[in-house]
Design brief:
- By secondary structure, this protein is α/β, with parallel strands linked by helices.
- It contains ten helices and six strands, in the order H-H-E-H-E-H-E-H-E-H-E-H-E-H-H-H.
- 45% of the residues lie in helices and 11% in strands.
- The protein has a six-stranded parallel beta sheet with strand order 3-2-1-4-5-6, with helices on both faces.
- The mean pLDDT is 94.
Length: 221
């Protein structure tokens, strides 16, 4: 999915791969415009969103612990399989502690677009990823990215108009998130347009189509 993954595969496989041509065909997103008029998912204050199933990979625990340190006007919405499970909800409230009142555990959603349209930022605290489509969808919607220290986060944030990689103690991470959202909302139209432009060049269906065409042309040559 990425050049870094291609290089790692070539190094690992060595001579086995040497006789082959390899191609990078990264993911794309194509959500399209959100339905008009649905403001039910917009909480008061600033709004962070995470999407994905519960489980070890997505590392929701890191985000829930971070909620203890984020300002009181920041709400975190989690959606995806398992986020409405009673056992997960109890665990989430325990980990978030004082921040539990600003958690929304929404379960699977039939359409993620209204949630992204209501957000001021997208967070992904995974332990590992490929090229996460959730982050690309957030980029399509012009949102800043808050990423954990997973392999590939640095590549996602390369040249990204407004993003943050979570490093250091939780209070330091919280200050970084606060500053990022403040900067984004100080001139949202400009930042949103820059992020959407970044998405169009790297992760849009048009980019994907160009890459596929180029790859197949290479086979035919």
């Amino acid at each position: 999915l990425t050049d870094a993954q291609k290089q790692r595969m070539a190094t690992t496989l060595g001579p086995v791969l040497a006789r082959h041509h390899t191609h990078v065909l990264g993911n794309a997103s194509s959500l399209g415009q959100a339905p008009e008029g649905d403001l039910s998912l917009r909480p008061p204050g600033r709004h962070l969103v995470m999407t994905g199933r519960t489980g070890w990979q997505k590392n929701y625990d890191a985000a829930l612990r971070l909620m203890r340190h984020l300002p009181d006007d920041i709400t975190l919405s989690l959606c995806g399989a398992g986020t409405d499970d009673p056992a997960f909800q109890a665990r989430a409230k325990r980990l978030a502690q004082d921040g539990a009142g600003r958690l929304r555990l929404l379960g699977p959603l039939p359409d993620v677009r209204p949630l992204l349209a209501s957000a001021d930022g997208y967070m992904l605290t995974s332990r590992y990823e490929g090229l996460p489509i959730g982050a690309l969808e957030a980029s399509e919607y012009g949102l800043p990215l808050v990423l954990g220290e997973f392999d590939g986060a640095e590549a996602l944030l390369q040249d990204y108009p407004l993003g943050l990689r979570l490093t250091g103690p939780l209070p330091v991470q919280a200050r970084g998130v606060d500053a990022l959202l403040t900067r984004y909302l100080s001139d949202r139209p400009r930042h949103e347009a820059a992020i959407r432009g970044h998405w169009a060049g790297r992760w849009s269906p048009d980019r994907f189509e160009r890459d596929v065409t180029q790859m197949v042309a290479g086979w035919l040559r």
